[in-house]
Design a protein that fits this description.
Elements: E1 3-7, E2 16-20, E3 26-30, E4 33-34, E5 41-42, E6 47-52, E7 57-63, E8 68-69, E9 72-73, E10 82-86, E11 93-96, E12 98-99, E13 105-110, E14 115-119, H1 126-136, E15 142-149, E16 155-161, E17 168-174, H2 182-194, H3 199-207, E18 208-213, H4 218-222, H5 249-263, E19 270-277, E20 282-284, H6 293-308, E21 315-317, H7 326-334, E22 337-344, H8 357-376
Parallel strand pairs: 3-7, 17-18, 17-19, 19-22, 20-21
Antiparallel strand pairs: 1-6, 2-3, 4-5, 6-14, 7-13, 8-9, 10-11, 10-14, 12-13, 15-16, 16-18, 20-22
Helix pairs in contact: 2-8, 3-8, 6-8
Length: about 375
């Protein structure tokens, strides 16, 4: 057999079933996440390791993409979806895959050695975040503040870069949906760039403080899940009311931390929630109403993103009755101008290529200029 085993029992490995059919094709069926009290289900993350004969050719078929969202079938793959491959799990290449009429993803790979890692996107694991936090913790411009724990007891932290007393403050959250690593690469690039000895970084830290919740759903990232925390809660929904600390302790911890900050007169003036999807738009937390100051600020943010970063995809405005995302919740409950920034997981329009971790780190590096421009005119 070309494939002797498929292993996913490692950090960020995705739950799956697999079998080799009579024609020799290896069928990999992803296991769904299910939302608590809802018909919603999702499977869009894959990360596993093929084990088999070096030099052999493997035909793969990935299945389990018949996601349900708000009662409607919605596939997480597209005609541009690629697969990422690595011989050792660190250096990645991207290869095209074919979406079939029955919503499978097919590709053929060659085993470079006895093992080959296959992933949806270049992974960013909890261990990668731990290395980043260790790298920056001794810097006098950084504070790492514990704010709570995940359902499985993993510590949650807010990273502050810059002076607490800075006149302007931005909050960035990443990885509320565990399959979406782009946000982690962005915040890594942003934090490292702000600590670099460069003029833009010095100007930012003179005027601004950056707060980062780098990995909102740590349990889901470790366990290779797609959308919901281990209690079946979507951490980017139900922000119209306080989070249940038993079911969504990740969101409850953010609310406690934020309310304490607001009580000291240090509320963030801007919040960006980073995600991945197939469109890559800036989601503005209100309908496009002429004269609305929030809409005007978000359109200015979009213009600054276009000026300073490779962002090109444009904006999408909320409509009445849409779910309360963190963007809507922070705006309506706390008065913070907030938005959702989706990073296209299939294609970067501004660069004309499939996204790698380095591309999202570059975006983080560029984002500091957009944030400085936003507060420079605030």
């Amino acid at each position: 057999m070309a494939v002797e085993y498929i292993q996913s029992g490692f950090e960020n490995g995705s739950p799956l079933d697999w079998e080799v059919r009579a024609d020799g094709r290896v069928h990999v069926r992803l296991q769904y996440d299910h939302e608590r009290g809802s018909p919603n289900r999702a499977a869009g993350h894959w990360h596993f390791r093929l084990e088999g004969a070096p030099g052999s050719t493997v035909d793969l078929a990935l299945e389990g993409f018949d996601n349900v969202w708000n009662g409607v079938l919605s596939s997480p793959i597209s005609d541009r979806t690629s697969c990422f491959l690595s011989a050792e799990g660190r250096a990645w290449s991207a290869v095209p895959a074919s979406k079939t009429a029955d919503n499978r993803l097919e590709l053929t790979v060659q085993m470079p050695g006895p093992e080959l890692y296959v992933a949806r996107l270049e992974p960013y694991r909890l261990s990668d975040l731990d290395r980043l936090l260790e790298e920056i913790q001794a810097d006098r411009r950084v504070e790492i503040q514990p704010i709570g724990a995940s359902p499985e007891g993993r510590p949650l932290e807010i990273v502050r870069v810059g002076r607490e007393a800075a006149p302007h403050r931005a909050l960035v959250r990443a990885r509320s949906h565990p399959w979406e690593p782009g946000g982690n690469w962005v915040v890594q690039g942003l934090i490292r760039s702000l600590l670099a000895d460069e003029a833009t970084s010095r100007a930012f830290l003179e005027r601004c403080a950056l707060y980062v919740l780098p990995m909102a759903d740590k349990d889901g990232v470790v366990r290779g899940r797609t959308r919901f925390n281990t209690n079946g809660m979507d951490l980017n929904r139900s922000w119209e009311r306080p989070a249940d600390p038993a079911l969504a302790p990740e969101n409850a911890a953010v609310e406690r931390w934020l309310e304490a900050l607001i009580g000291r007169g240090l509320a963030p003036q801007l919040a960006i929630d980073l995600h991945n999807d197939n469109s890559g738009k800036l989601h503005v937390s209100r309908p496009d109403i002429p004269g609305d100051p929030h809409v005007a600020k978000m359109l200015r943010l979009e213009a600054l993103l276009r000026e300073h970063t490779w962002f090109r995809e444009g904006s999408k405005f909320s409509t009445p009755g849409q779910p309360w995302t963190v963007g809507v919740g922070l705006l309506e409950r706390y008065g913070i101008d907030a938005c959702i920034l989706e990073l296209n997981c299939d294609w970067i329009a501004g660069l004309g290529r499939v996204p790698f971790g380095a591309d999202w780190e570059l975006f983080g590096h560029q984002l500091r200029g957009a944030l400085l421009g936003y507060f420079g005119r605030a």
